[in-house]
Design a protein that fits this description.
148 residues, mainly alpha, extended
Length: 148
């Protein structure tokens, strides 16, 4: 084994970080997706005449609920989580559209707002649910008595 300087520690690949231009691609793509989704929501809410309004708003309508559902399903493998999150996102969008059409209150801004609120509620519900079991556990180092 030889050691080297920098991020690579051994010649056999143990402890080696990815090198090259693609090493920080995931955070960059996540930031770009967030920016596109936010831009789409803002363009739709402002009723802009931009040609980017439609594609960016559609991306927001798919990405916002998909992210909230994917966070809730952390236990699944990545591909299963992706497919389930996208299917749930389409289902949520269709339910919002159907509800708005049923009560004769369809509007683009109302749909964007409803999807954003429901996505935030899903995301916050997941955060609250994850924190709740931590409060019920005994402090570290304290053993619970077993009751027969």
């Amino acid at each position: 084994m030889r050691s080297s300087t920098g991020n690579r520690t051994t010649a056999d690949g143990e402890g080696r970080e990815r090198a090259g231009p693609g090493r920080d691609l995931s955070p960059l793509l996540a930031g770009a997706a967030t920016g596109i989704a936010a831009c789409g929501a803002l363009l739709a809410l402002m009723d802009s005449g931009s040609p980017l309004r439609g594609p960016c708003a559609l991306f927001f309508l798919l990405a916002a609920p998909a992210l909230a559902i994917a966070v809730a399903l952390r236990g699944l493998d990545p591909f299963g989580r992706l497919v389930t999150a996208l299917a749930g996102s389409v289902a949520l969008d269709m339910l919002v559209a159907q509800a708005m059409l049923t009560v004769h209150r369809w509007s683009v801004t109302g749909g964007i707002t409803a999807v954003a609120v429901l996505s935030l509620l899903l995301l916050l519900g997941t955060r609250v649910r994850r924190r709740a079991p931590a409060r019920e556990r005994p402090p570290e180092g304290v053993k619970q008595a077993k009751v027969p």
